[in-house]
Design goal:
The protein has 12 helices and 7 strands. By secondary structure, it is α/β, with parallel strands linked by helices. The protein has a single domain, classed as 3-Layer(aba) Sandwich (Rossmann fold), CATH 3.40.50. The strands form 2 sheets. It has a 5-stranded parallel β-sheet, sandwiched between helices. The protein has a two-stranded antiparallel sheet with strand order 2-3. The N and C termini lie far apart (about 45 Å). The structure holds magnesium ion. The site of magnesium ion has 6 residues, from loops. Keywords: Lipoprotein, Signal.
Length: about 260
């Protein structure tokens, strides 16, 4: 207990670098700083996001030409780091000396304060003018449902309603939810920051990720629109050999996993 109060007191009183020196987990969480800084401050992050959605628009125009006329058309998008930017949450966690705490994530999503990923709103509004609906398939929880809808609606995202927001249903596997949409719609393209937003072959079937990406190379910028997210993703799992590593162990695995010469 004394140790706990000591740590709380330190959190309020000490500058960040001193927190990191006295708390190894905080030191490990600092690994994420450059990724969050890049997303928040670089022009390149914005440019890549616009590039992704410019490709999305071109691809949509092409795909509309060959679409099955017997079904309505849609695009499927992920939410986090695809249409909403959660980098303020990630920044908040690093400043607290953490990489992620579920309680803080709920606090952040409840604020409905995330901004748009550059280009996302313009693209989805364009799709709407072409009678292309948007389905938001996200691994946010049911508990975050109302605030997520309100965040999307506040920013003016089209089809931000009960019929089009699909949150996590027991499993983080998006394939069953994709199949539900595919049964009724032509899914003209999918947008995501994580390859699992497109297909399970990349991370969820035990295959070699890079080989699967190479096999699918014609799909990117075409059927699969990829957004940049340097902060987190399924890619991290490739580095961590073990399910229940703590933050310090994960940091060690990151160092050990680096290619060098
Ligand atoms: Mg995402």
């Amino acid at each position: 207990m004394t140790k706990f109060f000591f740590q709380v007191a330190l959190t309020f009183l000490l500058p960040l670098d001193l927190i990191a020196q006295t708390n190894p987990a905080a030191q490990a969480a600092k690994d994420y700083t450059i990724a969050v800084a890049w997303q928040q401050h670089s022009g390149e992050y914005r440019a890549l996001s616009f590039q992704a959605y410019n490709f999305a628009k071109l691809s949509l125009q092409e795909r509309l030409k060959g679409a099955d006329a017997s079904k309505p058309n849609c695009v499927v998008v992920d939410i986090d780091e695809t249409v909403l930017d959660n980098s303020p949450f990630q920044g908040h966690e690093i400043q607290k000396g953490l990489s992620y705490a579920a309680k803080d994530w709920s606090e952040w999503t409840a604020k409905a304060a995330a901004d748009t990923v550059p280009g996302a709103l313009g693209f989805l509004k364009y799709a709407q003018t072409q009678n292309v609906e948007t389905f938001y398939i996200t691994n946010r929880d049911q508990a975050d449902y109302k605030a997520t809808l309100s965040n999307l609606q506040r920013l003016g995202f089209p089809y931000a309603d009960d019929a089009h927001l699909v949150v996590k249903q027991g499993t983080s596997d998006k394939e069953p939810r994709r199949q539900q949409v595919l049964g009724k719609y032509n899914v003209l393209l999918l947008c995501g920051d994580n390859l699992s937003d497109f297909s399970n072959v990349f991370y969820r079937e035990g295959k070699n990720t890079k080989e699967e990406v190479d096999k699918a190379q014609q799909e990117f910028g075409n059927h699969f629109i990829v957004l940049p997210n340097p902060m987190y993703g399924d890619w991290e799992k490739l580095l961590y050999k073990g399910e229940h590593l703590n933050e310090t162990q994960r940091a060690q695995q990151r160092i050990e996993g680096l290619k060098s010469y």
